[in-house]
Amino acid sequence: MTKALVTGCAGFIGSHLTQRLLNDGVTVIGIDGFVDNYDVAAKLRNLAEIGSHPAFTFHSTMLQAERWKDWLDGVDVVYHLAALPGVRNSWGKAFAEYVSHNILATQLLLEACMQRPKPPVIVVSSSSSVYGTMQGTLTDESAPLRPVSPYGVTKEAMEQVCSVYVKAYGLPITMLRYFTVYGPRQRPDMAFHRFFRQMMKGDPVVVYGDGQQSRDFTYVTDAVEANILAGRHAAPGEIFNVGGNREVKLIDVLNIMGTLMNISPKISFQPGPAGDSLRTCADIRLAEQRLGYRPQVSLEEGLRRQLADMRFQPRS
Question: Is the pTM of this model over 0.70?
Answer without folding.
Answer: yes
